[in-house]
Every structure is written in C-alpha cells, then in structure tokens.
Amino acid sequence: MNIGIFGATGLVGKEFLKLLDENHLNIKFNKLRLFASESSIGKKINFRNSNLIIENYNDKVYSELDVLILCTSSNVSKIIINSAKNYDCLIIDNSSAFRFDKDVPLVVPEINGHLIKNNNIIANPNCCTALLTLVLYPLHLKYKINKVIVSTYQSASGAGQKGLDELVLNATESYPIFGRQYLYNVFSHNSEIDLHTRYNDEELKIILETKKILNSDIKISATCVRVPTIRAHAESIHIEFQNETKLNDIRNILNNQSGVIIEDDIENNEFPEPIKVENKFEVMVGRIRHDLSDDSKKSINLFLCGDQLLKGAALNAYQILNLGT
Amino acid sequence: MNIGIFGATGLVGKEFLKLLDENHLNIKFNKLRLFASESSIGKKINFRNSNLIIENYNDKVYSELDVLILCTSSNVSKIIINSAKNYDCLIIDNSSAFRFDKDVPLVVPEINGHLIKNNNIIANPNCCTALLTLVLYPLHLKYKINKVIVSTYQSASGAGQKGLDELVLNATESYPIFGRQYLYNVFSHNSEIDLHTRYNDEELKIILETKKILNSDIKISATCVRVPTIRAHAESIHIEFQNETKLNDIRNILNNQSGVIIEDDIENNEFPEPIKVENKFEVMVGRIRHDLSDDSKKSINLFLCGDQLLKGAALNAYQILNLGT
Predict the structure, then answer these.
(1) Is A233 known to be catalytic?
(2) Would the CB atoms of A151 and B236 count as touching at under 8 Å?
(3) Which of A127, A175, B73, B116 is the right S-S partner for A312, CB 3.0 to 4.6 Å?
(4) Strand, coil or helix: B8
C-alpha cells in the first residue's frame, strides 16, 4: 500500500505523519510520499531514519498511490479529488469540500466507521464536531437528544501554523490572520459569516455535520469563539434529552465510550483543560451535572476538551485509514 | 457627606477610587477615608493632589461616616455590616454576604434602582450577573424569558491582583491561586463546588442573583470558565423567550438600554471582545441571531463583553451611591 499525504507541511499533515511514524494501530504500508504547495517542494522531512522529499503533485501520481490523505484547503481538495476519483484510491479528506456530498460518508470511526467500506472518498469532520459527536453519540443512543446548545473555546492551532504564530510569536505586533490582538483576548471565530443566518462557517459546520454524523435531525445551536490557547479546543455543552437521565448512568456510558475519558473531580476542582489534552488521543469530558432549572432531569451540562489536531483532525483520519485498508 | 472605602487597596477598591476621582456623575462629598487590612495600614494613596493614608477600622469610624463602600470579602463584609448597621450609614457591599437577605436589595441601577431609597444596606451583584442582567432585563420586559443558558469566559482580574499576577507575571512558574497554568489555558471557575448540585459558587450566584434582580423565577443554567484575559468577562448566552422575537426589535431594545452598546458587524467580523471593553462603562453585546433550530423564533443567541471591574463591580457601586445620596 502506497500512501500520499497532501499538505504534508501543515499542522494537520505533520500530525498525521507523526501518527504514521508511531503507528500504534500497526497499519501496513510500503511507500510514503509527501506533497505540498510549491513553496515547500524539495524540502526534506525525516521519517524513520530516511529523508522524504516534498514533491509537487500532478495527475500522474494518483495511479501510483493507494491512499490519499488530504490535509489541504477545501479548494485544493476539490481539485485533487476531481482528478483522483477516477483512480482506485482511498481518499481521506480533512477539508469541508465533500462533507455534505450524499455519496461521501462523514466519519467518526467510533460512531459510523461501518460507512468506510465500499466508499472511495471519506470526509473527516470539522474539529469541534468530531470532539462533540463522540460525546453526544452514546448519550443519544440511550436517551435520545432533543436539543444541543454548544459554546466553544477554540485554540489558535485551528487557524494553522500562521494562526498559532500570531498568538505565540507575534503577540504584540501585527495580526494578518486574525486582524486583532489574540494574546489576552477572546473573539468570535474568524470564519466567514453567512449574512442571512448571521452564523459563521464554523458554527454552521458544527450544526450540519453533527446531524449527518449522528444520522439524526437533532436540534443544535452553536457559538464559536477563539480563546488564546495553543492546540486543544474546549466546548461548553447543554443537552436536552427526550428522556429523564441519571448522572451515574451518563458517567458509565461516557466511561465505556472508546476515545472518551472522564475528568470530573468536584472535590479537587479538576476538570478538562486544554493543556491536559495536548497530544492526547482522547476527548476529556467533565462538569457532568443536571441543569438545575429542569425538574424533569432531562437536561444536563458538560464541558469537554480535545486535541483538535488529533481527534479533531489527524487522529480521526488515521483511524479512518486503519478501517479503510 | 463622608465616604469610607473599605478594601481600598484591592482591584475593585482602586477602581472605585478612580471613579470618585473622575466623578462623572458629580456626586457631592466632603471627606474621603480609606480602610484596608493590616498589611496596608499607613500606606499613602494619592487622590486629587493630596495623600490619603490607609487607616485601620474599628467600630468608632462608623459614626463618622455617611457612606461605607465595602470592597471586601464576604467574611469581612459580614463583620463590618453587623457593627455598622446600627449607625445611620448607607452601606454598599460588593461581596456576596447579604445578596440573598430578603431585607437587602440586590441592585443594578438601570433595572431596579428604585429599591435603593429607604434601604441602608445595598448589595452589589456578582460581576457576571451584573453584565448579564443588564442585557436580559429589557428583553425580558418585552418578550418574557423562559430560559437562559450561559457559558462564561472570565478574566483573571475576577480573582484579584494575585490572580491577575498569576496570569501576567508568573505565568510559567508556580500557581498558588489557581493551582494550574493559566497562560494558554482554560479551566473551570476556581470557586468552591457544591457537592450536591455539582455547580460551583460562581454559577450558583449567576443563577440565583439573576432571578432576584429580574424579580422573576426564570429558568437559568450557567457554566463558568476562566480564560486567560486580563480584566473583562465575556458570556455566550442562549435565551428562549415565551414569545416570538424579531431581531430588529431586539437590536432596538438593546440599543435603547442605558449602559448597553451593540457591536454586531457581520460584514467585518467585528463583535464584542474583552480588549474592546477594558476601562469602558458599557456592556457590549453582539452576535445577535436567532437559534436556527427553533422554527418558532422564540430563541436567540447573544455574546457580551463587559469590564468586570467596572459595570461588574465598582461602576455599579458608584451608580448605586449616586442614586442613594
């Protein structure tokens, strides 16, 4: 099996490469090839004691690859997929380009991994959506979600290396990516805003992708906010179920969910934090409690954190690769 | 009128002193005296070209003062009020000590300022609550709130000078106040957690104080989170009303609310940010939009920012002083 990573020099591409290097799921592959935009062509990247050289891509390469991992923008993913789809490749796309194509499954392996077989193109969800759905899914199975209201606390890494640099390196000078001071500040997500609904693109992704992944027309509302953190996202989540809930049962359900760990120590005030999940595979969930205003005990609040470069992107793609080959 | 500020060297005390110095409401007063804990006694603080000396306080001073501004902890406020309440003083207490005493009004002047007259003790609300209620109040009058779900993004200054120092000065060393790294991190509010409800004290304050200030048993749920910002808080707010809403009308209502300004520019992605409201009197509100999942248009989302040391504390107390004298 020959694997090509497209956009190999970006934050997600690098994480995917690291996952392939460590290869904890022991995926068998022969050749690994790296592709990126023109400015990176010819650069060497060390991988398992050999140097991989960043290549330019053209339509010929698709016949030489069995798997395409796209860590590219939507526009670039569209161009690559339109050319590559005629070849017998598995394409795993991290961008939003095909997430709502009815023939393209949108996959979080723990939820709907069965959709991977028999499909050549698999879409990897938005970072916040992947973290959110992994926590919602087992609870929805048991109690049936009526409505979700989520407010996010999103890190700089979601805007790539340049966004990260703007927080960490250049924090008191100019702001070409975000257009405003990031350090010691909080601001509405920097994605484009739909002038009709007044929601930004990130919020609409969460709303629409969650329904597709859960395969359920649940009600969901989202507010996406950037906070000055490095690489893990947090989400404050209110869930209203159709049925009465028991907290112990919710804890058990989440405890049994693969990919989720609970951090909910009310005696020591230890709950999920971005720095606790950096470089971790699991989504951390805590602050599990009933909404005191709902006497029927159908509503709860949760707080989660997850590494958006891992389960929110590269790890989820790597898990899809494992199931798809 | 002789005014005494207790806890004059803390963050809120200093802001109150600055407000009295600028005195934009032109409150008439004669003597100003400053009190603080033992470690500050004898220190000089410059006020209008003279030096005020920080004094120790004892039961004698209450007979010499007409107004007591308490910028003290709950425990200290209780001690002072229990001694001072027998004197003919107006006491404005920033702590939570008497906020739920049925004889003590909890006041945001724009909402229930009429309660100040004929009461000697006035409680100043929790910082998040003051900002939140000022936005909820005019909307509740028009559309009747059914339920509010709020997630906060709270700054370091809410934990006083030492909390602020832990973020800004000492960010990579030890963490005596918060017990964890603050810079580049987000964590559940550091107040005590009620082991029965699993809510922290800050969340319970928002829930209970909002009902008292709005004089209405609305449903409300809160999640309080610290983010690495300096002095202004942010809140992501979901409101479900009893009646169908119109966005233009909501904008007009908020635009006409004294103390509120709207920042809601969807074309340029300019919305409320903590750094935009630092040292500002107004609560800034934006991201005003319908919840897309509610076809009845009874639900909206909002995002607000406000200087928690000003409208969230010292400014609100200063406004109470103005109405009470």
Answers:
(1) yes
(2) yes
(3) A127
(4) coil
Asked if A116 and A183 sit in the same domain, the reply is no
Chain segment A257-290, per-residue pLDDT in tens: 999 999 999 999 999 999 999 999 999 999 999 9
pLDDT band at B227 (very low <50, low <70, confident <90, very high): very high
Cβ neighbours, 10 Å, residue B101? 12
Contact B112, B228 (CB under 8 A): no
* Residues from chain A contacting residue B186 (CB–CB below 8 Å): 153, 227, 229, 234, 273-274, 305
Same structural domain, B78 and B134: no
How many Å lie between the alpha carbon of B134 and the closest alpha carbon of chain A? 21
Residue B140 and residue B102 share a domain = no
Chains A, B: CB pairs < 8 Å: 153
Strand, coil or helix: A63: helix
Strand stretches in B164-309, DSSP E: 187-188, 219-223, 225-226, 232-241, 260-262, 283-290, 299-307
Cβ-based contacts of B211 with chain A (< 8 Å): none
B120 and B132 share a domain? Answer: no
Residues of chain B found within 8 Å of residue A289, distances taken between Cβ atoms: 197-199
Question: Mind telling me how many Å the CA of A294 is from chain B's nearest CA?
Answer: 8
Nearest CA in chain B to A276: B185
Query: Is residue B305 annotated as part of the catalytic site, yes or no?
Result: no
The 10s digit of each residue's pLDDT in A165-221 is 999 886 667 888 999 999 999 999 999 999 999 999 999 999 999 999 999 999 999
What SS3 class is residue B200? strand
* Cβ separation A274–B229 shorter than 8 A: no
Q: What is the CATH number of the domain that holds A87?
A: 3.40.50.720
| CA distances for B183 relative to B41, B231, B314, angstroms | 33, 14, 26
CB contact under 8 Å between A234 and B186, yes or no, is yes
**C-beta of residue A92 within 8 angstroms of C-beta of residue A46:** no
Q: Is the pTM for the entire model greater than 0.95? A: yes
**Chain A residues within 8 A of B146 when measuring between CB atoms:** none
Q: Which residues contact B244 (CB under 8 A, 6 or more apart)?
A: B296, B297, B298
What is the distance between the alpha carbons of residues B281 and B51, in angstroms, rounded to a whole number? 27
Q: Which amino acid belongs to residue B164?
A: L
Assess whether B136 and B109 both reside in one domain: no
Please indicate, yes or no, whether residues B11 and B75 belong to a single structural domain of this protein.
yes
d(CA A323, CA A107) in angstroms, rounded, equals 11
Judged by CB atoms closer than 8 Å, whether chains meet at A236 and B225 is answered as yes
The two tokens of residue A33 are 């090839």
Q: How far does A46 lie from chain B, in Å, by closest CA?
A: 29
- Structurally, chain A folds into a number of domains equal to 2
Q: Using an 8 Å Cβ cutoff, are A185 and A228 in contact?
A: yes
Q: Quickly list H helices, chain A.
A: 11-22, 74-84, 109-112, 127-143, 160-168, 201-214, 247-255, 274-277, 315-324
Tens digits of per-residue pLDDT, B49-68? Answer: 999 999 998 889 999 999 99
Does one domain contain both A168 and A186? Answer: yes
The ipTM value here is: 0.96
Tens digit of each residue's pLDDT (9 = 90 or more) over A216-251: 999 999 999 999 999 999 999 999 999 999 999 999
DSSP alpha helices (H): ranges in A51-121? Answer: 74-84, 109-112
User: Of the ranges A220-229, A312-321, B170-179, which one carries the lowest mean pLDDT score?
Assistant: B170-179
Pull the structure tokens for residue A293.
Answer: 């205003």
Helix or strand run (H / E) with residue B6 = strand B3-6
Same domain, A154 and A174: yes
